[in-house]
Fold this protein.
Amino acid sequence: MSTNAAYFLKAGAKIRILFHIFQMFSEVFFHSAFSKEGFQKETSPKQKK
């Protein structure tokens, strides 16, 4: 039982780490995408003037 419990704990930790990395990656991706759109919207009127 102890080996199985340790195996499940390790698997759960790996899943949590992978989920955390995926969550951070998605947040950074969406943040960069939205910041690029906002940056283009802010700079485009200045270029027209």
The chain has a mean pLDDT of 79.
